[in-house]
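Example 3.2
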Amino acid sequence: MLTDPRTGGERRRIALGGAPEVAAAVAEARAAAAPWASLAPRDRARRLLRFADLIEERSAEYTAAERAGTGKPAAEAAGEVANCADLLRFCAGAARSGVSPAGGRYLPGRESWVRWEPLGVIGVIVPWNYPLMMAAWRIGPALATGNTVVLKPALTTPDTALLLARDAAATLGPGVLLTVPGDRDTGRLLVEGDIDAVAFTGSEAGGRDVVARAGLRRVSLELGGNCPALVLPDAPPDTCAALVRAATYNAGQSCAAPARVITLRENYRETVEGLAKAMAERRAGVHFGPLNNADQADRYDRIVRRSAAGIEHIAPLAPPPGEEGGHWRPGRVLADLPPDDPAVLEEVFAPVLTVQAADGHAEALALADSVPQALAASVWGARTDEALELAGGLNAGEVWVNCHLEQTAELPHGGRGSSGHGTDMSVLALTEYQRPKTVTVRVGRG
């Protein structure tokens, strides 16, 4: 039974994939792997472009399906459908550009070059916060480089994944992209199935489980953020408003969203007040949607309840009429926190900002890097040299200066530490789903 996060009520029933369904999907993808890989890059690109066109043509249907599972505002969901189509188009072209070293004579009397070959069948497991966009980030480069894919969406959000499989069958061919909805057991069956690699986006615990089950097969992981934002005394006037917008986008359920604001002592109180004012103007039910499910709402409640914050600013709730029973949670700003506060150490994954003060840049960097996750971060200040020095000192896979949560298909996204390893987006993502083969030929008579 699937529930509507906006109301908490039942919205749909769907069968979960078990061992027979997973095995059948993997076998079908395996049968389709060689024909798909044998296509010339331009022919695969044509089919992927048609796939993207069909998603765009049916954007209203995709938007409705995305909203059904997530409760996102219509504008957010529509934007993610557009991003999905854009990412597929980018990958279709990027795979034709080549990322191999140039061929040449690296050894005397020998000519060498590198071939990039697909891995085969990729098991893709994606979370519920961005069901369509996270799927696109994984399936785009996997398909473009000649792999076939079995996609396992999150239990609560299978809707758009089912549409992707339907439209892929019509444009890419049978067996190239298949969807098996299900729960964690379904995902485990897929990871342990006859696949060649796993691309997993989700929790750290889930990532560790995937690694343990995958054995020696290739694994690409994106496991969450708890991201810091360093706010200097000369930060731009719109800093607090921009951070609050980023922290409440998708109800804060973004791995790269700002979660921990770190200031210097001299601008601490000013920043707390600025964030509180901006948060008071962002209302759940008007400006952002609900949390996705009851477990996530319970997590928010548990961490907030355990927090020892001396200052707490809570924004008002405004659920639409008839949706009062949904998983709505207000935006919060928590300040005057001990260093080991659960709201600091744990990723709330909700519209919550903590604020900490540091005595100088070195301590600010130490606070920023004090949690195991290292996905993304931002620095806010007027001096370019100062901001870039701090950006270089942060342990993160992606750093923004005077902005946050701004991404495009051309730029790589990936983490370090407990945030996992691997790359989404950009031409670098293509190598996640390929293996290099060096070919060296003796030339001449010697």
